[in-house]
Amino acid sequence: MRAAIQPLSLYCSNSSKLMASSSNSLMWFRKGIRIHDNPALEYAAKGANFLYPVFVIDPHYMEPDPSAFSPGSSRAGLNRIRFLLESLVDLDLNLKKLGSRLLVLHGEPGEVLIRCLEENLASAAGIEVFSPVSHTLFNPADIIQKNGGSPPLSYQSFLKLAGEPSWACAPLSTTVSSLPPVGDTGRSDISDVPTIKDLGYEDMAKDDWTPFRGGETEALKRLEESMSNKDWVAKFEKPKGDPSAFLKPATTVLSPYLKFGCLSSRYFYQRIQEIYNNVEGHTSPPVSLVGQLLWREFFYTAAFGTPNFDRMKDNKICKQIPWNDDNELLAAWRDARTGFPWIDAIMVQLRKWGWMHHLARHCVACFLTRGDLFVHWEKGRDVFERLLIDSDWAINNANWLWLSCSSFFYQYNRVYSPITFGKKYDPNGDFIRHFLPVLKDMPKQYIYEPWTAPLSIQKKAKCIIGEDYPKPVVSHDIAIKECRKKMGEAYELNKRLKGLISEEDLENLKKRNTEEDQRQNAQTKRKRQTLNDWIQPQ
DNA sequence: CTTCTAGTTGATGGC
DNA sequence: GGCCATCAACTAGAA
Known about the structure:
Blueprint: E1 2-6, E2 24-29, H1 39-45, E3 50-57, H2 59-62, H3 78-97, E4 103-106, H4 109-121, E5 128-130, H5 140-146, H6 155-162, H7 216-227, H8 230-235, H9 255-260, H10 265-276, H11 289-304, H12 327-334, H13 341-353, H14 358-371, H15 377-387, H16 393-403, H17 420-425, H18 430-435, H19 455-460, H20 476-525, H21 531-534
Parallel strand pairs: 1-2, 1-5, 2-3, 3-4
Helix pairs in contact: 5-11, 11-16, 13-14, 15-16
This protein binds a DNA duplex (15 and 15 nucleotides) through residues 152-157, 237-241, 285-287, 291-292, 295, 358-359, 362, 366, 405, 408-417, 420-421, 484, 488, 491.
Protein name: (6-4)DNA photolyase isoform X2
Organism: Cucumis melo (Muskmelon)
Pfam family, one: FAD_binding_7
């Protein structure tokens, strides 16, 4: 028997219990909700008489949580849960076309899988586990090793270390043409893919659904649409994109499909390379389309190699900054009532679409943290993590570290203006009018600063500031000065602290760290030793 | 060890 | 509208 667990495993992948004459395979889908370029699926199907394709729904992540600030579970907003279910329905359909189907199990994955193995495949004496790296282009552990044990902290040094992926010119796993049948499913509590209602949710009004549908089929369709415009692909420059474009977004919007693995990042990479090879010239990392995939790799590597990556405390690449704990300001930001239409419109787009342009994310993240409100980046991270349909633990945390000038990026004087930044792209304020209809009749000269409109204009636009739409929670001019001052002081303190440590306590600290490391090694390092064990679930 | 360079994506004002 | 210097000044990594 074989259990090809893709792309994540509870077990180590270097199993010695290989059974050459195996005939039953269990394919555990976690990420990688796709058929194409799926080495684990291909491996599981090869030579198997029966194949059990399984997805486990963990109630811990999927149960409705009424206490959360938006509909959804404790971990994910309803838009992302729906996106996942759509992806599973599509996977089931695609499996059926190949003579198989998806078996959905419910419960804590470890327990459920062991029960499933016992009930259905118990006759086998040994289990071979195969859990290949296929969610990312590189294995972060390799990059870290090349760099002497620590992850590179700049994109350029990452590029140098990474080089070309080993499979760049080789054919990827081909799409399988047929799959072994599903065997006897015994007495397991196997179900079809549940609906939102099956999971206990009252679904949102369809107007509030994200416009992006989940699934591999949709992912490949979207990829083809982007790739069909070769000129656009070749000339792609991320920073030149328009964050206010919403009828036709300025990027591919393939991130949610990469997040769930509905689209293979390697297949995406090869498709872009193919175009590069057939055009005159093309852009390069960091701004190019391939450069975007490499950002993902860079952040996965940093996250994989940095203990406590998702917090300020005990995170050695994170600046220690005395962020405030103002729940009022946080709630105003989260609920799109800061009084800055550009910021609030983006936050509405986040809630409704689960997706915003990269630069739009920059604007609201900067505003919440070092730019205006000085609220802790972890709080903003939590809101993004819940609401984004593409939220990815490594990438989300990395970008919050970046935008708050806590790591990777340190030029805290460069602050996005919540008033003028959006205006450059969208002087008429169409983006604001769309996501904040209360402001749809505000004249364009006031749309980014409606509090400056004379009362007569506000009345005419049927939008009284302070009643129909909030007054700004802070004065940007004052807030930016205070924030810069606090950032300067915090940086100064971090520097002094570093100096102090190196003079007096370095030896003690080193000793303590070594001891701690050894303790941690014994306890947790075994669990984290493969990338697959580390990637966070849905 | 110190010094130097370059860094995905700021805002402003002058030309 | 695009380009440039200026603002004040950061860090990682290379030299």
